[in-house]
Design a protein that fits this description.
This protein has about 160 residues and is mainly alpha-helical. It has one domain. It contains five helices and no strands. It is elongated, with a radius of gyration of 20 Å. The N terminus is likely disordered.
C-alpha cells in the first residue's frame, strides 16, 4: 500500500547535464582545451619573445594563466556543473592534471632548448620549436585527463558520490 503522506527519500540529482553522449562532452572538452592552448601558447610567445623570459618560466606563466579559465569552462560548459566548486573532488584533481601537463611540457621545452642551444636557428624558430614541444607534451596528458574528468571529477561517478 502506498503511503501518500510521505515524500520520496530519493536524493536529488546534482546539477549537471543528463546522460549526454560521450562524443559531445569530448567535443566540448576539446574546444575548451583549444581555448586554453591558444591562451597558454600566446603567453609563452609573449613572455619569450616580448619579455625575454627563460623558456621554462615562460611555459609556467602560460600554464598558470590558462588553468583557471580551463577549469571553469570545463566544469560549467563541457560537463554542465553549476554551483560552488568542490576543492578536494574537483579543483585539486583538475590542478593536479594541470601540474602534470606543465611538468611534462616544461621537461619537453627544456630538452628542446638544450638540443637547439648550439644551432644557428633564429629566436623565433627556437620559440616555435618550444611551442611544438609544449603542445606535444600536453597532448600526451590530454586523453587521460578527459577520462578522469569524465569518470571521476565532473562525470557520472562524481555525481553518484555527491
Amino acid at each position: 500500500m502506498l503511503d501518500r503522506g510521505h515524500r520520496s527519500r530519493t536524493p536529488a540529482r546534482p546539477a549537471g547535464r543528463r546522460q549526454e553522449p560521450l562524443w559531445l562532452k569530448l567535443a566540448r572538452h576539446a574546444a575548451v582545451s583549444s581555448v586554453a592552448t591558444v591562451l597558454s601558447q600566446g603567453v609563452l610567445v609573449l613572455c619569450t619573445l616580448g619579455l625575454g623570459l627563460p623558456p621554462v618560466l615562460a611555459n609556467t606563466a602560460g600554464a598558470v594563466t590558462s588553468t583557471p579559465p580551463a577549469f571553469q569552462l570545463n566544469r560549467r560548459w563541457a560537463w554542465g556543473r553549476t554551483g560552488k566548486s568542490h576543492l578536494h573532488t574537483e579543483v585539486v584533481p583538475f590542478w593536479g592534471f594541470s601540474l602534470l601537463g606543465w611538468a611534462a611540457s616544461s621537461v619537453a621545452v627544456h630538452r628542446v632548448v638544450g638540443a637547439l642551444r648550439h644551432t644557428h636557428m633564429s629566436h623565433a624558430g627556437r620559440t616555435a620549436s618550444m611551442m611544438v614541444a609544449s603542445l606535444l607534451a600536453y597532448g600526451l596528458i590530454w586523453g587521460l585527463r578527459f577520462v578522469v574528468l569524465d569518470r571521476l571529477v565532473f562525470g557520472r561517478l562524481a555525481k553518484d558520490a555527491v
